[in-house]
Write a structure and sequence with these properties.
Helix content: 40-55%
Number of strands: 7
CATH superfamily: NAD(P)-binding Rossmann-like Domain
Order of helices and strands: EHEHEHEHEHEHHHE
Shape: globular
Strand content: 15-25%
Strand order of the largest sheet: 3-2-1-4-5-6-7
CATH architecture: 3-Layer(aba) Sandwich
Radius of gyration: 17 Å
Number of domains: 1
Largest sheet: 7 strands, parallel
CATH class: Alpha Beta
Length: 254
């Protein structure tokens, strides 16, 4: 399946986890991919692995909370691949799980800057490039945006903002033939989730607790999210905009 031949795609936070899987899935389907991550070594590794599989990729260090960094990322897509067809605002940051009132103010600011401002900056610089021929923007939100749980309240609030941004932008950008959708994953065993729990691995008790609330009785796999994102970016979803698609094994309805 090669749905994205000739397409230029940016994936932020593509150095690991969901972003890595998304970038590699787009590349396998023929896209030229900008692998953007604040950890440039991770971005370079993913881009090299794509190239080793005969895909097209360029890596770039990108801080999605910094306007000049985001502008440079967009400019690279244009200079390297001739334009921009799909932007995946996937980069995210979470705080340690715990009471909201104990969260450090600087950490609060960083979570909002990365997860919410980062989406806005991506849109700010991508839309002028996309306006001429249309495009697709996909944001990684979270099932916590619509079904929050204790311990990560501030993180969930940032993702609630992403859902609102997604739906509002879908209406605002429709006249330019730019579709805007989001995915709402449930927990996954990724460096992101392990960071929220403050360890290098996901403890069995945490895994069991998370799975117990998911009707399909497993965590999200990065491949699940990559499949959802590439569907929403494809022509199969040509009449879908403003969709915030749960990738959660039924957790949001359980």
């Amino acid at each position: 399946m090669e749905r994205f031949i000739g397409k230029s795609v940016i994936v932020t936070g593509a150095g690991s986890g969901f972003g890595e899987a998304i970038a590699k899935r787009f590349a396998r389907e023929g896209a030229s991919v900008i692998v953007a991550d604040i950890d440039v070594a991770r971005a370079e590794r993913v881009a090299a692995e794509i190239a080793a599989g005969d895909g097209k990729a360029r890596s770039v260090r990108t801080d999605v909370a910094n306007a000049e960094s985001v502008r440079a990322m967009i400019d690279l897509a244009v200079s390297a691949f001739g334009g921009l067809d799909v932007l995946v605002n996937n980069a995210g940051f979470t705080h340690r799980s715990g009471p909201a009132w104990e969260l450090d103010e600087a950490e609060y600011d960083r979570v909002f800057a990365t997860n919410t401002k980062g989406v806005w900056l991506g849109v700010k610089y991508a839309v002028p490039v996309m306006r001429a021929k249309g495009g697709v923007i996909i944001n990684t939100a979270s099932i916590g945006a619509v079904a929050p749980r204790p311990g990560v309240t501030v993180y969930n609030a940032t993702k609630g903002a992403v859902v609102t941004l997604t739906r509002g932008l879908a209406v605002e950008l429709a006249r330019f033939n730019i579709r805007v959708n989001a995915v709402n994953p449930v927990a996954a065993d990724t460096p992101f989730m392990r960071g929220a729990l403050g360890g290098d691995h996901l403890p069995d008790e945490n895994r069991k607790a998370l799975i117990s609330g998911i009707p399909l009785r497993r965590l999200t796999e990065p491949a699940d999210v990559a499949a959802a994102v590439t569907f929403l970016a494809s022509e199969d979803a040509a009449f879908l905009t403003g969709v915030c698609l749960p990738v959660d094994g039924g957790r949001s309805i359980s």
